[in-house]
């Protein structure tokens, strides 16, 4: 089994992999060090400096309340990443459980789980997430729950498909033939062997989750003001777009940068983890 | 000889909502203690599923529909088919173990050799980690693996097919089972390695007093390793005999055909011998003998009535009308 360091080494050998890896690393560092990097508090209003352009004092300018856009964008990274990771965590955990159960036991259980997932899958994800949030009420926790639920079917399908292919491998029959219980076979042999597609799916889902969060916040049903979020920043700055384009450009640029980095990383990760696709 | 395993009239069905086929029909054979028993037949004749059914490894839609498999376990004779899941698990790997055709895929790619060997021990014994390692080491040396210490820490992809099959044998024998089922253990290996593996199995069989069921389509393997043989055709046993009797006193036309089809170096004939025709498709069994269409010695009765497996001389059973009314038990 490849070690994490081995995977990273192989990843950065590929130029695209290097770009994705460094991009994601930058986002992670920014969000972890946000309180240190950000020069001002995200809610602090400099009323005399409303809507000023980028300068050495305010790197990305200020918004209509006189808040520092740079600080807000940096903290927005923290929020986005947090929402992304937790919601993908929720989706991945449920997806793993449902997928393994459906794939391993097949038959009726499989049918019930997968038809339910199909129903969830049939809704456009943003619509379903908005629906869930409007039922639960808008807040950061509910946003994470909603995005988690929306992403569960993709994970369930990926996991189920991998489980079915791994299950037919001879080493699983072999493990049965030495007397292992289904529980041991699942934990010791099946789950470790499906980790590769699972990890790739998680990376790709992260960018999707971040984008969904941004869209929901833009529509006003995600992160609530005054908490900074790229989506809600875009929404608030719509009215000032012509006067103060920096209000739109910087959060949008960060959204693009983040999504692109995660997608590139996910693609390269698939090449590294799945040798079958590397022909 | 005392019997270790008695397979009694088992039938294996493939049964789904809209499909029903009998893949193995009324199979019976006995395996003595310390005996090596060969099962030979072409692809799809039911030899592998019969072997899998012994340790209940058949999965949906395959199912044993009737019969008994008696095994002389620690608790005395038990019917393996009637055991509960947790009871059969205690027998798997401990009293009956199995080696597979493809050593390359039969080991989990993400575990080291040590972890793979230890897995069986962990489940069936209470040994400490250190004891398990020393046992694994000893076992690897016994199956003729060089630099065993190092190999314990290596992964399956670092080793060759022959080595992996030796490791499979080590895993299968580490709990000193009474019965080893080898499902085409040498098919995926090249000829020189084949001979080594067969020698190794013979050697270890003597050492551990294990009975072996050797499933193969290679009569050469049978000649080299087995004492008694059952020839399978289309889900039935067509001939069962001691190995010498089968080769020198062949009774069933199918077995003669198989023997004729074996090529040997120095054979100058231009074409290889083949048995004409095809195996009857599952679900469309003829009324008479299943081999009738392809048989060179067919008689009128063959089309009409299926022959029974009957003893034609002591210890030699055959399912054929050539042996007249002796073949008709009814």
Structural features, described:
The complex is a heterodimer of chains A (279) and B (330). Chain A has a single domain (4-246, 265-277), classed as MetI-like fold, CATH 1.10.3720.10. Chain A has helices at 4-13, 15-32, 34-37, 69-105, 107-122, 125-136, 140-167, 170-177, 182-218, 230-237, 246-273. In chain A, α2 packs across α11 (246-273). By secondary structure, chain A is mostly helical. Helices cover 74% and strands 0% of the residues of chain A. Chain B is of the alpha/beta class. Chain B folds into two domains: 3-233, P-loop containing nucleotide triphosphate hydrolases (Rossmann fold); 255-264 and 272-327, no CATH class. Helices cover 33% and strands 25% of the residues of chain B. Chain B contains twelve helices and twelve strands. Chain B has helices at 47-54, 85-91, 103-106, 113-124, 129-142, 148-152, 161-173, 191-208, 219-225, 243-248, 253-261, 300-304; strands at 3-16, 19-32, 36-40, 62-73, 76-79, 96-99, 179-183, 211-216, 228-233, 236-242, 310-313, 316-318. In chain B, α4 packs across α5 (129-142) and α5 (129-142) crosses α7. Chain B starts with a strand and ends in a 12-residue tail after the last strand. Mean pLDDT of chain B is 87; it is low at 326-330. The A-B interface holds A 1, 106-107, 169-171, 173-181, 184, 188-189, 192-193 and B 55, 57, 60, 86, 89-94, 97-98, 100-102, 105-110, 119-120, 123-124, 155, 168, 171.
Residue windows where pLDDT falls under 50 for at least 5 positions of chain A = none
Second CATH tier, the architecture of chain A: Orthogonal Bundle
**Portion of residues within helices of chain A:** over 70%
Q: How many strand elements of chain B?
A: 12
What is the total number of structural domains of chain B?
2
Approximately what portion of the residues of chain B adopt beta-strand conformation?
A: 25-35%
Structural class of chain B: alpha/beta
């Amino acid at each position: 089994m490849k070690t994490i360091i081995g995977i990273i080494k192989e990843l950065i050998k590929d130029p695209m992999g290097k770009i994705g890896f460094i991009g994601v690393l930058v986002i992670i560092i920014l969000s972890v060090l946000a309180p240190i990097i950000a020069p001002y508090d995200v809610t602090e209003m400099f009323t005399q400096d409303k809507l000023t352009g980028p300068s050495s004092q305010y790197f990305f300018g200020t918004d209509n309340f006189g808040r520092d856009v740079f600080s807000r964008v940096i903290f927005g990274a923290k929020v986005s990443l947090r929402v992304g990771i937790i919601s993908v965590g929720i989706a991945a955990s449920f997806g793993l459980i449902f997928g393994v159960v459906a794939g391993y036991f097949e038959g009726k259980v499989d049918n019930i789980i997968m038809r339910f997932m199909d129903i969830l899958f049939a809704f456009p994800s943003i619509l379903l997430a908005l629906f869930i949030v409007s039922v639960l009420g808008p807040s950061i926790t509910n946003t994470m729950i909603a995005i988690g639920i929306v992403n569960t079917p993709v994970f369930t399908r990926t996991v189920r498909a991998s489980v079915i292919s791994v299950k037919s491998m001879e080493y699983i029959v072999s493990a049965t033939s030495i007397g292992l219980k289904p529980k041991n076979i699942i934990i010791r042999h099946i789950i470790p062997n499906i980790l590769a597609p699972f990890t790739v799916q998680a990376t790709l889902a992260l960018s999707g989750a971040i984008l969904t969060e941004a869209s929901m916040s833009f529509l006003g049903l995600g992160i609530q003001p005054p908490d900074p979020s790229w989506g809600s920043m875009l929404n608030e700055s719509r009215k000032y777009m012509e006067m103060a384009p920096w209000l739109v450009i910087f959060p949008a640029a960060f959204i693009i940068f983040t999504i692109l980095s995660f997608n590139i990383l996910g693609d390269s990760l698939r090449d590294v983890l799945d040798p079958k696709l590397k022909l | 000889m005392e019997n270790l395993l008695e397979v009694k009239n088992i039938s294996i069905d493939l049964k789904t909502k809209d499909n029903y086929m009998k893949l193995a029909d009324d199979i019976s054979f006995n395996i003595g203690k310390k005996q090596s028993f060969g099962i030979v037949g072409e692809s799809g004749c039911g030899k592998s599923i019969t072997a899998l059914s012994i340790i209940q490894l058949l999965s949906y839609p395959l199912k044993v529909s009737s019969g008994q498999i008696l095994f002389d376990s620690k608790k005395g004779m038990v019917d393996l088919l009637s055991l509960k899941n947790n009871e059969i698990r205690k027998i798997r790997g401990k009293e009956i173990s199995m080696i597979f055709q493809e050593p390359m895929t039969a080991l989990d790619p993400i575990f080291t050799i040590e972890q793979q060997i230890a897995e069986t021990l962990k489940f069936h014994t209470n040994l400490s980690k250190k004891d398990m390692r020393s046992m694994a080491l000893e076992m690897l040396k016994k199956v003729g693996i060089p630099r065993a210490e190092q190999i314990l820490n290596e992964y399956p992809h670092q080793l060759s097919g022959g080595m992996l099959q030796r490791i499979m044998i080590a895993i299968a024998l580490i709990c000193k089972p009474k019965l080893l089922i080898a499902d085409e253990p040498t098919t995926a290996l090249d000829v020189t390695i084949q001979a080594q593996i067969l020698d190794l199995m013979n050697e270890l069989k003597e050492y551990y007093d294990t009975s072996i069921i050797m499933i193969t389509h290679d009569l050469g393997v049978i000649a080299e390793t087995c004492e008694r043989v059952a020839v399978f055709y289309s889900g039935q046993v067509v001939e069962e005999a001691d190995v010498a009797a089968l080769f020198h006193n062949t009774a069933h036309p199918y077995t003669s055909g198989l023997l004729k089809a074996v090529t040997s170096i120095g054979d100058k004939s231009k074409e290889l011998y083949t048995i004409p025709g095809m195996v009857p498709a599952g679900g469309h069994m003829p009324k008479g003998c299943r081999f009738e269409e392809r048989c060179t010695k067919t008689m009128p009765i063959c089309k009409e009535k299926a022959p029974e497996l009957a003893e034609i001389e002591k210890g030699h059973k055959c399912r054929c009308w050539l042996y007249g009314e002796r073949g008709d038990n009814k």
